[in-house]
Amino acid sequence: MKILAIDTATEACSAALYLDGEVSQHYRVAPREHSHIILPMIEQLLTDASIRLAELDALAFGRGPGSFMGVRIAAGVTQGIAFAWNLPVVPVSTLAAIAQTAHLQSGAAQVLSAIDARMNEVYWGAYRLSENGCMQLDGKEHVTAPEQVPVSEDRGWTGAGTGWSAYGDVLTAAVGAERLTAQLGDCLPSADSIARLAVVDYQAGRTVAAAQAVPVYLRDNVAKKSAA
User: Fold this and answer.
1) Which domain holds residue 206?
2) What is the reported pLDDT for 226?
C-alpha cells in the first residue's frame, strides 16, 4: 500500500509517505512558510522512494480544524494531485493526528486534543486508543471556550496540542487535575500520524473523491463573527 499524506493545519508543515508498513517523513515547524515548502517536501519524498504519483493508492491530508489558511493549503494541494492522477483521498482530523502523535511520543492511550482557535476558544476532541493502534474519537469534535470543554469522568488523560500551552490552567481546571496524567502543549500534528490513521480508513473504504477533499473548520461562521 502506498499513501502520500500531508499536513499544514498548524505551525508544523509535513509530508509523509507510507509504503507497505514503513513511513518516511519530512517535517518542519515553519509558520507562514507552508505554501513554499510543502511541494518540495512531497517531491523529495517521492524521489527518495523512487515512487511516481501514478503509483500511489491514495492521498491523505489534515482536513482541520486548524489555521484557516493552513487547512486550505493542504486541501488545495491534495485536490490538485487527486484530480490530476485520479486518486482517492482520505481526509484526517487534525485533532486525531495530534492524539496519534501524542500516543507515538508518550504511549498515551487517552488523549484530550486541543488546538488554540484564537478568539478565546479551542478546537477540542477526546480520543482513545483502539485495538488497531489508532486513536479513535470519543464523542464529537467541538470549538468552545476553554472553560466549557466537555470531558468524561474517566481518569488517565493526556492533554496534547497548542490549546494546552495557551490555556493550560483553564483547561486543567475544566477537566480536573486529578483526571490528567500529563500535558504535551508542544505536541503538533504530523503527516506521519495522518498516514497511519489514513491506512485504516482506506482499508475500510472511507475515501472521498478529489472534489470532496474539503476543509473542516468547526467554526464555519467565523466570517460572520469577524464582520460583526
Assistant:
1) 2-93+189-227
2) 38
Share of the chain residues as helix, strand and coil, in percent rounded to the nearest 5: 40, 25, 30
With cell 477526546, the residue in question is 126
pLDDT in tens, 40-60: 999 999 999 999 999 999 999
Number of domains composing the chain? 2
Q: How many CA atoms lie within 13 A of 76 on its CB side?
A: 12
Where are the strands (E) in the chain, listed by range? 2-7, 12-19, 22-29, 58-62, 89-92, 110-116, 122-129, 135-137, 142-144, 157-160, 180-184
Amino acid 200: pLDDT: 97
Tens digits of residue pLDDT in 177-196? 999 999 999 999 999 999 99
- Please tell me whether residues 13 and 24 are part of one structural domain: yes
Residue 222: band (very low, low, confident or very high) from pLDDT cuts 50, 70, 90: very low
Q: Which CATH number characterizes residue 217's domain?
A: 3.30.420.40
What is the secondary structure of 149-188 as a DSSP string?
A: ----S---EEEESHHHHHHHHHHHHHH-GGGEEEEETT--
Question: pTM of this prediction?
Answer: 0.94
